[in-house]
Amino acid sequence: MEKKEKTKFTRCTTAANLHVRETGDGETPSRVITGYAILFGVESVPLWSDNDSEAREIIAPEAITKELLDGCDIKFTMFHDRQLILARSREGKGTLKYDVDDKGVSFEFEAPATIDGDKALELVRRGDLSGCSFAFTTDYWDAQCVERTVKRVDNRSHITYTVRAIDAVHDFTLAADPAYPETSVESRELENLRKDALGGGGKTEKSESETVKAQIREMRALAGKRIV
Q: Which of 40, 97, 174, 210 has the most crowded CB, counting CB atoms within 10 A?
């Protein structure tokens, strides 16, 4: 099979622990937002589901390490808009703090004293923003990066993609309407996973969209083949 370029994907999480940290003195309101951006070992809702097959995704613990994150430029934004930056970590330094534990990747940052920072604080306090997203790059067609398993259930193929290696994490984002309330992981429609990371439009965006659709067709075709 022809070698595919590494692709940037976006996955969303319903950060059940997303909240504004309380202060001890009760006088100065906290501006620190904390939560989990990524959970390990948690099965997603279907990446797709039709009469023939259904696919889900799992992020393995070995896919992301503190060392990996420390080598990335991670922007924390709101609504997938990179102009609405709330915090940032460049090679492990900056206003965005994170940690990796057995559960996943936790984060915290102090919301900036800006219109966007105030908006983020209010929406998180109210519970209107209850999820997070993260964008990452991996090679979905390299078995060492993404392991594929298939089970036949009721004449349908149930496919699981276990992401075991990630090249880079690009951003975390506060998001509304999380799709995975039970698992703290949310997926957008596979065709739209890359839109927020393109940073452009026109012919390039159309080309990227067609590429993703072609990749989805290939993923489905691969899922139909027997795994040795």
A: 174
Which of 224 and 86 is assigned the larger pLDDT?
A: 86
Rounded percentage of the chain residues whose pLDDT exceeds 70: 67
29 pLDDT higher than 60: yes
Listed residue (56, 36, 64) closest to 167, CA to CA: 64
- Per the rule left: phi > 0, alpha: psi between -120 and 50, beta: everything else, 221 is alpha
| Beta strands across the sheet bearing 73-78 | 7-13, 131-138, 168-175, 73-78, 81-90, 93-94
The model's confidence at residue 95, banded by pLDDT at 50, 70 and 90, is very high
Residues 172-216: tens digit of each pLDDT: 988 765 443 322 223 333 433 223 222 444 444 455 455 555 555
Number of other CB atoms surrounding residue 113 within 10 Å: 8
C-alpha span between 128 and 121 (Å, rounded): 10
Q: What count of other Cβ atoms lies within 10 Å of the Cβ of residue 210? A: 11
Joined tokens for residue 110 = 């102090």
